[in-house]
Amino acid sequence: MSKNPASSGSPPKIALVGNPNVGKSSIFNQLTGLNQTVGNWPGKTVELAEGTLVFGGVTLKVVDMPGTYSLSSYSEEEVVTRDFLLGRAADVVINVVDATALERNLYLTLQLLEMGLPIIVAVNFIDAAYHKGISFDFKSLQESLGVAVIPVDASSGKGLTELMDASLRQLRSPEARRSPARPKFGKEMERLIAEVAKELTLYKPSLPDGYPIEWVSLKIIEGDPEVRKMVQLPVDVQARISEMISAVEAMHGEPANVIIASERYSLSHRIVEAAQKPKVESMNAASGWISDVLTHRVYGYVVLVAILGGIFYLIFRTGGFLSGVIDSAFASIIAYLASALSFLPSIAVNLLLNGVVFGVGAATSIALPYIATFYIVLSILEDTGYLPRAAFLLDSLMHKIGLHGKAFIPMLLGFGCSVPACMGCRIMETRRERLLLGALVVLVPCSARTIVILGVAGAYLGIEYALLIYLIDLLLVMAIGRVLFKVLPGESVGLIMEMPPLRMFKPATVIKRTWLKTKDFVFTALPLIVLGSVAVEAASSLGAMDAIVNSISPITVGVLGLPVAAGVALIFGLLRKELALIMLATYAGTTNFALIMSPAQMFVFSLVMVIYLPCIATLAALIKEYGWRNAVLIAAMDITLALAVGAAASQVLAVIGV
Amino acid sequence: MVQEALEVYCRLKKALKKVTMRDLIKAGIDSTKRERLINEGLLKEKGGVLELTKEGEGALLAHREDYLHGRLIHNDGSSLPEDALHHWTSCHHIDKATLNEFYERLRSMPYRIEDLVPLVEAPPGKAAEVVLIIGGRGVVNRLCEMGLTPETRITVSKRAPVGGPVMVSVRSTDVAIGRGIASKILVKIID
Questions:
Q1: Which of A631, A639, B29, B39 has its CA at 20 to 30 Å from residue B111's CA atom?
Q2: Do A23 and A31 meet the contact criterion of CB atoms below 8 Å apart?
Q3: B180–A494 CB contact, under 8 Å
């Protein structure tokens, strides 16, 4: 059956499986420290987090599977997890469950047992459960499930040694790797599974190794599209099976998948009932009233506005300060290197300094101050469980653009940076909604674009004009959302979202996550920004800059009524939008934009810079998430929009005589 | 209304398994209604036990379908158009296969349809039982995964303002459900 891990060359793999919000990632972080990589599953837009740890002299690889509630094939995450586990790619499977919501969590556990996996169940948040007055007889739980059950508390690290001991035991003894007994369904369902399994054995479909026949039967009964496709039953067998299923459905008055779900839940209920010790009065009602305030119909929105306002203030205060420090540091490095390297031909020096070093500086001075600060705040909101509450409050607003409350989360990310916002769209359930949201989040003014708004419209025209541009942009997001919602085929999906309990965040986890995410951003964006800077530097060294700027002057001057020099900003905006201002200043030879643009032109300029094409790093993220075709379509839409809105604004301003 | 007498019969059937004429009398069904039930061939007496006939099943289903549509979905008492199948598929976007399952569930539902309310209208703080979910396979599946299987006890804990979602407690977790979906989950309030 499963391969002997000792014989294979690579380190044994431990997979962490569980519902979202069960502290899976926090266990992963405790186990692996900073030895982690975050990437994508091959060919999928599902996050893959891997790390290593050394325990008891053995090097182990830990894989943090995406959080799922179930192992049907309704989402990519579920398919990835299922295929990984059934292919026995993991030597040990740890199922992390939340002690405060055990009944719901065991629903997934039962499905893992149905797959015949010798899992280890880690019951997390035992301390939090205890404070709520819930405690368990773990021996009873272990007996009911037929696999090892280890109580842990990830935030304090309690129980993790025992968990790893159990994992090593399983790695070393073939006995412990034997498939556990499959949880039993009701009489009729068991008979149906046996009948379908019999049909399957007669027909002998070619099943991959490690796919238990009873599990395949169960999935066929559930109507799982992936398994049905894989098995490819002939029409007559299919018809016989359908008949058997219909008979049971008629008996229960429910479709088969609902009967199965109900029976799993009633088993889960019985297991929890048997293991739960008599409840003592809840000792901690504090998080109850906080949650009530956060989702209150009036105070909830007050808190929401305060939190969002606070975030923007914090990010632009600290971000602006740090960004200035880094920029001036790089400026002095460039100046120093320029004199040190003066023996080289000037074109090489220019390419190296204004291209490579400048590019690295540009990437750092946005990544560290803005992106890192943003991720710190976001991690705190995430870990405390505030985000779902905000999504709850904003659900009806998001419905106006054909999405539901969860869409608020990538939108919020979009104010920081469009790259993580694009990747954040994965939380939506269907591909249609991911695409719709992806097209919208790139229009949300990211921190770089906010700098343009503040640096031009805000500085020269006044803060009310900056806010007006923000407002126009957000109205545009709403309008485009409505249009795309109507145009894209498919139905809108409603909100079904768990509200995790409010929890205190751990600073160490927040910093660690921020570090990993920022690193991830730097790796995606840095090469592109450096390449772009080199290209632009090469163009200007070769004296091609004027030609390029002039060649787009029919657009800048003709359509938008801007000065020719504005073309520099439009081109540089592709690399990094707030840098565009510096380049414009260099090209025009002045930092006083009032000398080169009229107030009306400044307004139009800021507006166009905000709407038109996302930066090159965002484009790369769009291609990664939605493929070339959709990325190009989104980019084309943004350019068209920017030109249309810019032209319209310049006409309107001309008419009212500004 | 004779249909409501049929609903009473169903509720008794669920509680008692075997329903006799006596049970109907005790439940307050008057003699005209009882006679009509038998005369119109909706119920049949067999060895003292009342059974629902094919016609009775049809009448019950039609009544439930009409009530569901006019009272629970549109809430204006509008009656279901002649071609009900077509109306469900084209105006309510329920595909054929789901519709069959839906009729099956409607037929076997053990409560009076008049006792059901959509989840959005359930008063916060009250316990309720999930009875019927009107929706495609995907939605039903996702709700089941989150623990909202038929006959589950839930409590509405909060409603967001202006067409926002409702929050329910189910199996010691809180789940937010969008208004659109919540208006298609029919529950029975438990006093």
A1: B39
A2: no
A3: yes
Q: How many CB atoms lie within 10 A of CB A96?
A: 30
Beta-carbon contacts of residue A31 (< 8 Å; ≥ 6 apart): A51, A53, A62, A160, A164
Same structural domain for residues A558 and A628?
A: yes
Instruction: Give residue A139's pLDDT.
Output: 94
Residue A499: which of B138, B142, B175 has the nearest Cβ?
B175
Contact of A147 with A112, CB cutoff 8 Å: no
Q: Which of B164, B167, B170 sits opposite A396 (nearest CB)?
A: B164
How remote is the C-alpha of A77 from its chain's centroid? Answer: 12
* pLDDT score at A439: 93
Radius of gyration over alpha carbons of chain B, in Å? Answer: 18
* Residue ranges for chain A with pLDDT beneath 50: 1-7, 283
- Residue A156 and residue A191 share a domain: no
- Residue A545: phi and psi, rounded to 5, are -60, -45
Residue A77 forms part of a structural domain? yes
Dig out the tokens for A282 from the structure.
């809840």
β-strand partners of B132: B186
**Per the structure, how many domains does chain A have?**
3
Q: Which residues contact A393 (CB under 8 A, 6 or more apart)?
A: A295, A300, A301, A304, A405, B160, B164
Q: Where are the domains of chain B?
A: 2-52, 60-114, 116-189
For A247-305, write each residue's pLDDT tens digit.
Answer: 998 888 788 999 999 999 999 999 999 998 876 555 455 567 888 889 888 999 999 99
Rg (CA), chain A: 29
- The values of phi and psi at residue A451, to 5°, are -65, -40
Q: How many CB atoms lie within 10 A of CB B115?
A: 13
Assigned domain for A263 exists: no
Tens-place pLDDT, residues B121-179:
899 989 999 988 887 778 888 999 999 998 899 999 888 877 889 999 999 899 999 99
Q: What is the ipTM of this complex?
A: 0.83
The Cα A537–Cα A583 span in angstroms is 11
Cβ distance A103 to B172 less than 8 Å, yes or no, reads yes
Q: Which residue in A375, A394, A363 sits closest to A311, CA to CA?
A: A375
> Quick check: B142 and A496 CB within 8 A?
yes
Is there a single domain that holds both residue A140 and residue A203?
no
pLDDT tens for residues B9-25?
A: 888 887 888 888 888 88
Second CATH level (architecture) for the domain B116-189: Roll (2.30)
A283 domain-assigned? no
With a CB-CB cutoff of 8 Å, which residues 430-469 of chain A face chain B? none
Query: Could you tell me if residue A472 is inside a domain?
Result: yes
Clarify whether residues A431 and A317 are in a common domain. Answer: yes
What would the two tokens of residue A286 be? 């504090």
Provide the CATH number for the domain around residue A131.
3.40.50.300
Residues from chain A that touch B167, judged by Cβ atoms under 8 A, are 295, 392, 499
| Min Cα separation B30/chain A (Å) | 30
Domain hosting A334: range is 299-656
| H helix intervals, B131-178 | 137-145
Please name the member of A253, A297, A497 whose beta carbon is closest to the beta carbon of B105. A253
pLDDT value at residue A279: 66
- Give DSSP secondary structure letters for A122-182: EEE-HHHHHHTT--B-HHHHHHHHTSEEEE-BTTTTBTHHHHHHHHHHHHH-GGGGSPPPP
Residue A210 belongs to domain with CATH number = 1.10.287.1770
**Token code pair at residue A66:** 């995406």
